[in-house]
Predict the structure of Aspartate carbamoyltransferase.
Amino acid sequence: MSDETGAMLTEMENLVDLDTLSIRELNDLLDLALMYQKGKNGPTLKRDVRIANLFFENSTRTVTSFQMAEHRLGLSRFDIRVAGSSVQKGESLEDTIKTIQAIGMDIAVVRHPATGWYRELVADRNLHLSLVNAGDGAGVHPSQTLLDLMTIKKEFGHFDGLKVAIVGDLSHSRVAKSDAKIFRKLGMSVRFAGPEEWWSEELAPFGSFEKLDDLLADVDVCMCLRVQLERIGQAGRATFTANDYHQQYGLTKARAERLKKTAIIMHPAPVNRGIELDDELVESKQSRIFDQMANGVYARMAMLTRILEERDLLEKE
């Protein structure tokens, strides 16, 4: 992707996949998010910075925490109502992005059902606004991964040697793919569990697929995933039974008792209570689910700040 002069933008001027960042860049981003959470003031902008939120899929946590992050950073926020936009008339995502750029946007935060929606856009030399990936189909979810890292770092103080179980709807989960790559990159070991038909070979390089009951006693983090009925197709929905799933693959109270006392329970939410985990575990002593949600604001503040820095839109501290 290029700026107005034709020079290629850096990875930090677009944030579409954390895996493109070095370990040092990842840690710097994480440190900034943690500083924001501890009360660090937002930077001073050189000028009015305009940011557009385009969510082509439903969202509560991600869209709201991006909005709050933008508010705290003093950005001029524009929430594009996709349902009432020209997308409904057949306009392509590329033309939509170029339209909001022409109108004067500096940054676009986009969630889209197409996996890898950003790939052609970041290579388009006619685009000079920054892109932030708020989730792409079954691809990756960078801001979710960063807030998950915050949650783990705050709990344990480090990553090296920690053992993480990612459990559930693995084939449809962008969180599983996004987290697994970065967790391994930062020194954690990853193990997977869930229905065999929802196992994805894309995850094989990052960890082993095992039976849930075989790994619970050994892990430091148990990450339960939402069952994504909207992605599994009509045939899958017809055969899916919530109770059967919960008994075979859910984190029941009995299973949770096998976790180490120091282990934590995580979930990217929204939680299907009584399916992915027992209702009473959602706000249990070991749960960090609502902490994850709170961390999301600071993670997204850090991501946007790095883009503003790279684009020289901040006054020097």
About this structure: The mean pLDDT is 91. The chain has two domains: 18-139+296-310, 142-294. The longest strand covers residues 130-136. The beta strands are 50-55, 76-80, 107-112, 130-136, 163-167, 189-193, 207-209, 221-224, 264-266.
